[in-house]
Amino acid sequence: MRPLIIPFFIPHAGCPHTCLFCNQHLISGVKQDLPSAELIQETVQQWLARSPDRVAEVAFYGGSFTLLPRKQQEQLLGAVQSLIEQQKIKSVRISTRPDALDEAVLAFLANHKVTTIEVGVQSLDDQVLQQSRRGHTAAESLAAIQRVKAAGFQVGAQLLPGLPGDTQVKALASVKGVIAAGAEFVRIYPAVVLSGTALADQFNAGQYQPPGLEQGVKNCARMLHLCLQAGIPVIRIGLQAEEGLSVDGAILAGCWHPALGQLVKAQLYYDLVEMLAGQFLSTEGLQLVCHPDRLSEVQGHARDNLIHWQQSGIVIKKVQTDANLQYDQVLLSNIQQKCRGSIITTCIYKERSDA
Ligand code: SF4
């Protein structure tokens, strides 16, 4: 059973930066100050009462946790220490910037029972980082991931493809780079233009156009494929549909959908079947088989995949399920040919260096 993650958002708290794309208040839907110790403890108890059997973890998201004044970090972490001692909470996770994770910081976090650190990498291309006013380099991100891992924490990387100056090739290189540095899980947040950001000013001035939903989903599918191949879980794709984002005019452009992760997985199956069909002498009257739990992803949102395959000449006459297939596998066949593929092990995409 997956751990119960009890999230607390500390939007922009402690962060002296103003990244081009950032509007943490909109992302989290939270406008108040840091949660008090009482609020944290009460909230944890409420969540535990609803899911008494699950292993629970407290997460402090948003902002840059380790740039908060030390007293406030102690206040937040202190609020959960007794819950950990009583074995109500197993661990704590935080997210922060790569340049706010030196050895002293890591020692402090370890002493306060933080076990997982998510590093806001965004991109491993220095030009993209500079254009996004991140204020740190790719080398600092890689060193931070390595340092966090060496100190015994579980380490994750947050990536943000589609920022100004980014390309699909750079985004894929960023995935490979964080995995090679030791990231144990990844979050992918494709670029969206949020109102009230410097990125919105660039967008409104016609200086920047993010990849839209269709292109963003295609890019994310490739990133997901790399992670799957490396055995690295992608624990989130796309911003949560929080209250702030659903306000009219909050999102001006970019790749956003409340079920973006599902769209990306469906795209991966679409690309897999398209690649397999390319090996068939005839792409008429094909039969497609997948694991029952993957049927909706294979067919796509509102059966979009079936429609789009047909439009590109791949006519699937029947989709069936077979529980003996692995979750990641599909079987494509017609009277003459049969071909098995996997969204993990099949090499779906050709390497490109031009995008
Ligand atoms: S470092 Fe994080 S919280 Fe701070 S401005 Fe950038 S994205 Fe926002």
TrEMBL record:
One MF annotation (Gene Ontology) recorded for this entry: catalytic activity
Gene3D superfamilies in the cross-refs: tm_1862 like domain
Keywords: 4Fe-4S, Iron, Iron-sulfur, Metal-binding, S-adenosyl-L-methionine
A GO CC annotation given for this chain: cytoplasm
UniProt GO BP: tRNA wobble base 5-methoxycarbonylmethyl-2-thiouridinylation
SMART domains: Elp3
UniProt xrefs under InterPro entries: ELP3, Elp3/MiaA/NifB-like_rSAM, Radical_SAM_C, rSAM, rSAM_horseshoe, rSAM_sf
Protein name: Radical_SAM C-terminal domain-containing protein
Organism this protein belongs to: Trichlorobacter thiogenes
